[in-house]
Amino acid sequence: MKILVCIKQVPDSETAFRVDKDTGWVRPKGQTKYWMNHADEFAVEEAVLIKETRPDTVVDALTVGPERAAQVLERAMGMGADGAVHLLVPEEGYLSPLSIASLIAAYASDKGYGLILAGVMAEDDMQGQVGPLLAELLSLPCATSVIFEELSPDGGMVYVEREIEGGQRDILELDLPAVLTVQTGINKPRYSSLSNLLRAKKQKAFVINRDKLPSVEDREKILRADYPRKSRTGVVLEGDQGEKAVQLLQILKEKAFL
Amino acid sequence: MKGSIVIITEHNKGQVAASTYELLAMAEEIRQGRPLDVIAVVLGAEAETAAQEMAKATGEPVVAIQNQHLALYNSELYKDLLVDILPQLDPVFVLVGQTTQGLDFAPGLAICLKAGCITGVDAVFREEGDIYFSRVMYNGKIVLDLAPLTKTTVLTVQPGSFKARRDIATTPGSVELRKSTAEPKKTRSLGTKRARQEDAGLAEADVIVSAGRGTGKKENLGLIQRLAALFPRSAVAGSRPVCDSGWLEYKKQVGLTGATVSPRVYIACGISGTIQHTVGMQGSGFIVAISTDPNAAIFNIADVCIVEDLTTFIPTLIEAYEESKGYV
Ligand SMILES: Cc1cc2nc3c(=O)[nH]c(=O)nc-3n(C[C@H](O)[C@H](O)[C@H](O)COP(=O)(O)OP(=O)(O)OC[C@H]3O[C@@H](n4cnc5c(N)ncnc54)[C@H](O)[C@@H]3O)c2cc1C
Ligand SMILES: Nc1ncnc2c1ncn2[C@@H]1O[C@H](COP(=O)(O)O)[C@@H](O)[C@H]1O
């Protein structure tokens, strides 16, 4: 079976952002560290785990993004993905979930993937849309927030537990091919192995420029990006560490918490 | 036709979810800028019970679709039934709660309806007759305002963003009951299970010290525990990544898919403050946040904000406490 794993490169959670007055869009401030969206690491690991129990499995990792996003493909191959596909969108800036899902659908539609995995949500834009959009564009069944999955021995179905509020689980069964969005905690993502990394360096990703794929029109318009309107009402402690510690203890004692 | 706002009712065996009444409040806000009808739709094996409740509480018309295959939520059947009925209701906006269920079917539904889809909506604005919606990104550091470009837009709405509207109707709305025998073809819902026990310790604690990804490594959890030990009736909890890493048991997880807690004091250590975490702790009496990132969203809801590295700040704090007690 062929498995496609959709992975996104996102800025790390400490990144500061500046709203660019000219473009109305946001840019990271200063040197930015990027990493693979955490949920996507779990998705790659899940695909590699399937491959380990079913030797006929081939795992492709795919990303949509600028040049720098190639880094997460390397990481995916380091974890054990067989192939890497980079749908290159050269310019930086906002990509709507619909445009991302449409690009992936255009690529994946005739490749015969039996299972498509995505993360439950990207840490940067927090849409939670790309997986279910992709499923609908490809007319495939879909389960989101998957915390356990098991393929049937004949590979015709997948048993799924999806996490719902308060740690409960919905249990379902989908016919394959299907799209699953993976929730964090489903497994323990492995480190890249040296031999896999060397292979990744040699093998290179298959790159397709977005011009070569059909495009869709966005269905919503960004009016502006801005800083949160909810302004801070709490006190920000000032001074060195010791002074802050003393102030905090004082506050806690005044309120009779300590 | 002037178009409508359709509310998709979430319910558990006929009991309407609180988040659905928040959608009604949002519909009311939209209506102040644009006179649209409001119609609620209920799907389920026990759709009528929920439909009666909705009609009574809101005074708006309700369409209920009863289908015996919907004793359990099923995304495929949900989409099929909604695609059938929605065009008849001429929706401009389809409002869905941003729950694990809403987020499961809303994007696919939008594709079927050739509609736009905006998730994580937490506010609605009107500007020169236009209506637009805002949502946050980058862990709550940036707000994005979006305007729909299509005739119909499906919106998933962050629970807690609007104040629930209910029990205001003097006369109940009409209920139209339809029966459906459609079956899902590729998706079979088999049941629900509870995968983890409740943690009584979190519910009873006066003070919860909570560890986030900023804790860095498992060994640093000792610091969190030592900090908690300063308080009587205290407990240690964590954000999802901490539990995913196995540093804490899942029953210690606070947030959307974990526990909801409301201690007198919640001390968030190395937690950025994403909505999925804060929905589980924002009812706390007093919130202290420690993070190295001065822009972390947790500081927007904290009573005391401390921009420090927890690995050095917590030892300093414990030392200062012991000094004040005359231990050293
Ligand atoms: C459907 C769904 C359900 C979810 N349910 C939950 C849930 O129930 N509970 C939950 O918590 N999450 C949940 N999440 C995940 C959530 O979206 C976030 O990914 C998660 O809460 C982030 O955890 P965090 O704040 O610990 O980590 P991060 O967002 O990575 O933040 C770490 C913070 O620590 C700071 N930091 C780093 N180093 C230090 C240091 N040395 N000292 C002090 N501060 C430091 C950083 O600046 C940052 O502010 C869910 C997600 C989805 C999609
Ligand atoms: N640019 C992208 N390239 C590849 N996969 C993506 C991209 N954006 C989102 N995804 C996938 O879709 C999931 C959900 O993203 P989102 O809908 O943006 O929250 C991510 O976890 C990825 O698996």
Characterization of this structure:
The complex is a heterodimer of chains A (258) and B (328). Chain A is α/β, with parallel strands linked by helices. Helix content of chain A is 27%, strand content 31%. Chain A has a single domain, classed as HUPs (Rossmann fold, 3-Layer(aba) Sandwich). In chain A, strands 11-10-9-12-8-1-6-7-13 form a nine-stranded mixed beta sheet, sandwiched between helices. With 328 residues, chain B is of the alpha/beta class. Chain B folds into two domains: 4-180, Rossmann fold, CATH 3.40.50.620; 200-324, Rossmann fold. Chain B has helices at 18-33, 47-58, 75-89, 102-112, 200-204, 221-228, 240-244, 275-278, 310-324, and strands at 4-8, 11-12, 15-16, 37-44, 62-66, 91-97, 116-127, 130-137, 142-148, 153-157, 175-179, 187-194, 207-211, 234-238, 265-269, 286-291, 304-307. Chain B is elongated and about 75 Å long. The chains are: A alpha/beta (258), B alpha/beta (328). Chains A and B meet through helix 4, strand 9, strand 10, strand 11 and strand 14 of A and helix 3, helix 4, strand 7, strand 8 and strand 9 of B. Adenosine monophosphate (AMP) binds at residues 6-8, 37, 39-40, 62-65, 97, 100, 118-119, 121-122, 125-131 of chain A.
